[in-house]
Write a structure and sequence with these properties.
The protein is low in regular secondary structure. It is built from one helix and no strands. The radius of gyration is 14 Å and the shape is extended.
């Protein structure tokens, strides 16, 4: 049912932007570019990010 793939860790520097592409979760509305904003301390609180 699940497949686990180990890959090297990607580090994103302080002045860089990373893009996360989800393969799971609710679809976004037609024409919507990004998902809704969630309070996760600029992605520093990973538990809050994934919970929302």
């Amino acid at each position: 049912m699940y497949k686990i793939t180990k890959v090297p860790v990607t580090k994103i520097g302080l002045e860089e932007i990373g893009l996360v592409e989800a393969k799971d979760g609710n679809p976004i509305e037609h024409g919507q570019t990004f998902g809704r904003v969630v309070d996760c301390e600029n992605f520093q609180n990973i538990k809050a990010f994934f919970a929302n």
